[in-house]
Design goal:
Shape: globular
Number of helices: 6
Number of strands: 10
Strand order of the largest sheet: 6-7-8-3-9-10
Radius of gyration: 18 Å
Order of helices and strands: EEEHEEEHHHEHEHEE
Bound molecules: adenosine-5'-diphosphate
Largest sheet: 6 strands, mixed
């Protein structure tokens, strides 16, 4: 079963003469464990495609499914990371990571153990008790990744997660994300407008074009991942 499948997917914002056709005729399916990078110019529908898979929007045509089931809304099988970390400022870093498991009804000791394990994974073991605003942008984005992983989703959806970071921090987080992907075996869908980043990170590279957003290229990456 494909981790993510899109069949004849289209999405228009608005109606009639003012409608914006953001996506049209999208067909793709992604195998479990793939690191898919979605790349293309601003406005080609990358975020829209990710939002459809996340369940934040419904397609106007076609079907989107994850793990063989139609997407009907957000769910614990999908974790989402945005360009801005969007952490709860009044909670500690650990509290932010515990939030999902707490909502899912996990007991205090278990969710704390889960949060601490994930904070170790993203290199924030020492920052668990701190508040988001005490952290650098890169550390906040690490915390957001840990939060997204907390419900143990099989799919990680990331919308330009490193675009707001300086170049050095971005490179570090790219390396860490690749290591996390290799360690956890998650399926990653990663939106970027940087061809460099798409080719560097992806095991599969999907290129979209504008008006309306269509897939113009969908290729496996030949790079030997993990060899360096
Ligand atoms: P990308 O992420 O590639 O920059 P988006 O998915 O954000 O592209 O947008 C695709 C197209 O849909 C663009 O033309 C954008 O202006 C339009 N769009 C996105 N969100 C909305 C919205 N909520 N209402 C109307 N148009 C939108
Ligand atoms: P991105 O960083 O992905 O390009 P944008 O800054 O284009 O995102 O969009 C930010 C938010 O504004 C999104 O929620 C998107 O749906 C919405 N949006 C984008 N384009 C439009 C538009 N033309 N009309 C209304 N909302 C839009």
């Amino acid at each position: 079963t494909a981790a993510v499948a899109l069949r004849g997917v289209s999405l228009a914002y608005g109606r009639g003469a003012r409608a914006v056709q953001a996506l049209s005729g999208i067909d793709a399916s992604f195998a479990p464990g793939a690191f898919v990078t979605l790349v293309g110019p601003s406005g080609c529908g990358k975020s829209t495609l990710l939002r459809l898979v996340a369940g934040f929007a419904a397609p106007t045509g076609g079907t989107v499914s994850t793990g063989g089931s139609p997407v009907r809304g957000p769910g614990p099988d999908r974790g989402v990371v945005f360009q801005q970390p969007r952490l709860f400022p009044w909670m500690s870093v650990r509290g932010n990571v515990e939030f999902g498991p707490r909502m899912a009804g996990l007991g205090k000791a278990a969710r704390r153990a889960r949060a601490d394990e994930l904070l170790e994974l993203v290199g924030l073991g020492d920052a668990a008790g701190r508040r988001p605003y005490e952290l650098s942008g890169g550390m906040q984005q690490r915390a957001a990744i840990a939060r997204a992983l907390a419900p143990d989703p099989s799919i990680l959806l990331m919308d330009e997660p490193f675009a707001a970071l300086d170049a050095l921090t971005r490179e570090r987080l790219q390396e860490e994300l690749r290591r996390i992907w290799q360690t956890t075996g998650k399926t990653v869908l990663f939106v970027t407008h940087s061809v460099d980043e798409a080719v560097y990170l992806g095991t599969r590279i999907v290129v979209l074009s504008k008006r309306p957003g269509r897939i113009v290229l969908d290729v496996p990456s030949e790079l030997p991942h993990g060899a360096d």
